Amino acid sequence: MSQGWTRRSFLTALPLPLLAGSGLAQDADRPQYHFLPPSNWMNDPNAPIWFKGEYHLFYQYNPKAAQWDTMHWGHATSSDLLHWKHLPIALAPTPGGSDKDGCFTGCMVVDGGKPVIVYTGVNPEVQCVARSEDLLTWTKEPNNPVIAGPPAGVDTPGFRDPHVWREGNEWRLLVGAGFRGKGGTVLLYKSNDLVKWTYLKPMLIGQKLSGPADPVASGEMWECPDFFPVGNKWLLYVSTQGKVLYWLGTWKDDVFTPESDGVLVHGAGYAPKSCDASGKRRIIWAWLREQRSKADQLRAGWSGSMSLAVVPTLDGDGKLLLNPAAEYDGLRGKRMREAAHDDCCEIHIKLDGMKPFGLLRGGQEVLGFDPESHVLSVGRSEAPVPPGRLDLRIFLDGSVVEVFANRRVWLTGRVYGERRGLSLRGDPRSIQSWPLTPVSRDRLTT
Ligand code: FRU
Questions:
Q1: Could you read off the pLDDT tens digit of each residue along the chain, which spans 446 residues?
Q2: List 29, 44, 226, 442, catalytic entry
Q3: Catalytic residue at 44?
Q4: 336 C-alpha vs ligand 1 centroid, how far in Å?
């Protein structure tokens, strides 16, 4: 790699969105191929489903402001995983109902051909059901809440985010919880009809860290469990301690036996949720949290982006691989043998893993590698990588940065502000990049 071009800066090749009028449509920090709502606050992905040939993505949404408050379920659909159409709000709190203070995270199953949402109502945290014929109009189950509180004798700091799946002729449900003073857990239930649930046992129990007072931050409480087969194993993940922990193992006769563990997504990514796409592959989305002040989020008028759709698979040794869905390749323009675009692009960089490296945008580091600590960084986010060569797939999109290292390590972060061209610190073994075509003309504001 010649020194000549590594020091050079390159100007943006893509035009800014042309739509006049909306400030959000011209906000260069808003992504152009990651999903996000037209405006205001989004957090967890909820109940993604592939139904009648279309993907449906729901999400925790505050339609009133770019800050977390009384939760609704936003809704969007796509036929190709890339281009999204915003749909009306799917779930809103019912005054006087079990979800009067918010419709929290949940999942979807199809029962007798009809979609059913299982989600958490607050306060207190209880599990609720809503049914639909067309995914647009939802009728809440008259018997809500279907689970009115934690099992007797379980003293938990929280009780939320149900995940349901079919097990033979029955249903199984995991709900995020914790044993106070001990550690986070997922509680396992069974049912024949999605309404009457029988508690079975905690499926796995973690270890609370001393330090943080907040139960989710300390690991005393696990949020947003998800559990499904990958290859011949089962993958469980939960969100806690500001990160997403996973276990790969076996599942038999209602017993999960973990065999390996790790962090599913590092950095901004949180509360991931998956979708079974026609039984052929599993697709995971994570909420990419902002990494700027609340005041800046309110000023911007939007907060939160969805990650890329990521497909988990196993390698020959049964270890977890994480890669963006192949659909994103379809957005690529002409390949360049340099880091020629500073936004809305994909860059592949190979490093020998022995020397420091940085990818800078307008003087700000968007990606860094430290060979001493073997840490890869993106803005404020960090992930450890194993010693040796690094093969990096980097996605830049407004303020969103996602990196897939050696097809195993998924690192996400946010870098705001300057778009004054890319430059490199250090010499990669090779580099190539593609501009990616924006999936909407106005940064998904309509
Ligand atoms: C995770 C979470 C969930 C909860 C939702 C509320 O980010 O705290 O546990 O259901 O967000 O918006």
A1: 222 223 233 333 333 333 333 699 999 999 999 999 999 999 999 999 999 999 999 999 999 999 999 999 999 999 999 999 999 999 999 999 999 999 999 999 999 999 999 999 999 999 999 999 999 999 999 999 999 999 999 999 999 999 999 999 999 999 999 999 999 999 999 999 999 999 999 999 999 999 899 999 999 999 999 999 999 999 999 999 999 999 999 999 999 999 999 999 999 999 999 999 877 899 999 999 999 999 999 999 999 999 999 999 999 999 999 999 999 999 999 999 988 888 999 999 999 999 999 999 988 999 999 999 999 999 999 999 999 999 999 999 999 999 999 999 999 999 999 788 899 999 999 999 999 999 999 999 99
A2: 44
A3: yes
A4: 41
Class of domain 3-324: mainly beta
Count Cβ atoms below 10 Å from residue 170 Cβ, excluding itself.
Answer: 11
- Residue 387's Cβ-count burial label (10 Å; 0-12, 13-18, 19+) is exposed
- Spell out the domain ranges in the chain: 3-324, 333-435
Q: Is 161 in the pocket of ligand 1 (CB under 6 A)?
A: yes
**Under 8 Å CB-to-CB from 255, ≥6 apart: which residues?**
none
CA of 104 from ligand 1 middle (Å) equals 6
Instruction: Report how far residue 15's alpha carbon sits from residue 43's, in angstroms, rounded to the nearest whole number.
Output: 29
> What's domain 333-435's architecture?
Sandwich (2.60)
| Residues linked to residue 270 through DSSP beta bridges, in sequence order | 287
Asked whether the beta carbons of 417 and 331 are under 8 A apart, the reply is no
Contact call for residues 104 and 125 (beta carbons, < 8 A): yes
Choose one of 59, 122, 223 to mutate for the ligand 1 pocket test, by most ligand atoms within 8 angstroms of C-beta: 223
Residues 194 and 148: beta-carbon distance below 8 Å = no
Distance between CA atoms of residues 188 and 254, nearest Å: 9
